[in-house]
Design brief:
single chain; about 300 residues; alpha+beta; 5-stranded antiparallel β-sheet
Length: about 300
């Protein structure tokens, strides 16, 4: 029987395990160079050197400066310039957003007269939205179609125009008018029956929210295509579509109807003063009015007496 061996027998050596690491007598030349101090790449005994960490070492005065530390050595003036640059980017971005919102989403206007009381009071500031379409019964802001304001349009000045353009002030133009839409394209509007009511498309409309007579001027009109017929809520003190039914022109009375492309948008809410914050939805009385003639006529049909010159 073979004796157990405590030491390796030179005659029958045990091979090293297949995956075991064995010690080499010498390192390969490629590895040996890494441990050779004299040949270390990037080393200079007489000056500082850069190591792999990205730190710059200065052996003359012992100062250690990191890449991040470069920012700490900016002068005061450079810090000011950087700060101003960052603030400018923020301000310009805010102005661009504000201008886009004003142009395509909403705009503020101040109420200058009593023609829309009691819905709107003098000095109210209203938010006009430009996203939704026009509907019967809504309060809308529009550009004077010509001669409604009875005066020359005043220039508000460059500062007011600039502030209004970027949305930091209410609309600075003085040619804006605000009224309520009574007739849509194709609608037939008539005033008034024996009970003093306005009729739209052969249906009476309860305008009791006005608190006064709907109109003292009799008329009957059919609204042309791409136009609306508007009235102020304070009918005795409002120069509106009724007052222009006899205006001269190539098409007499056509100036009484507002082209839809002159409508800026719908008055959505009173935003100032805080005590009057509220929405400005169309009264329920207009919601059940049947649709008018479709397609609408290209020109208006107007029946109005001499009273239609308020």
């Amino acid at each position: 029987m073979a004796e157990p061996r405590d030491v390796a027998d030179p005659a029958s050596p045990d091979p090293a395990p297949r995956h075991a690491l064995t010690e080499a007598d010498e390192l390969p030349d490629s590895l040996q160079d890494l441990f050779d101090d004299d040949d270390e790449p990037g080393r200079d005994d007489d000056s500082g050197h850069d190591d792999d960490s990205g730190h710059a070492h200065d052996h003359d005065d012992g100062e250690l400066t990191t890449v991040a530390g470069e920012r700490e050595r900016l002068t005061f003036g450079q810090h000011v310039v950087a700060f101003v640059r960052e603030i400018s980017v923020v301000v310009v971005g805010a102005l661009v957003v504000s201008t886009l919102l004003r142009a395509f989403v909403g705009q503020m206007f101040d109420i200058p007269s009593e023609s829309m009381t009691s819905a709107l009071q003098v000095g109210d500031r209203v938010l006009v939205e430009k996203v939704s379409g026009i509907e019967r019964g809504q309060i809308v802001v529009f550009h004077d179609p010509g001669g409604w304001l009875g005066r020359e349009i005043e220039d508000p000045g460059p500062v007011a125009r600039a502030l209004a353009f970027i949305g930091l002030a209410p609309g600075a133009s003085s040619d804006y008018v605000i009224k309520r839409v009574i007739g849509m394209p194709g609608d037939t509007v008539m005033c008034c029956d024996d009970e003093g009511r306005i009729w739209i498309n052969d249906q009476p409309v309860d305008e009791s929210y006005l608190g006064l007579a709907p109109s003292t001027i009799p008329f009957r009109v059919q609204v042309p295509a791409e136009h609306v017929f508007v009235l102020g809520d304070n009918r005795p003190n409002s120069r509106d579509s009724r007052c222009h039914l006899r205006d001269p022109g190539p098409l007499p009375g056509q100036n009484a109807f507002i082209p839809t492309d002159k409508v800026v948008g719908r008055a959505a809410a009173v935003v100032w003063p805080p005590a009057r914050w509220r929405g400005l939805a169309a009264p329920e009385a207009y919601r059940n009015v049947p649709a008018g003639q479709s397609p609408a006529r290209e020109t208006a049909v107007i029946e109005a007496g001499a009273e239609a010159q308020c």
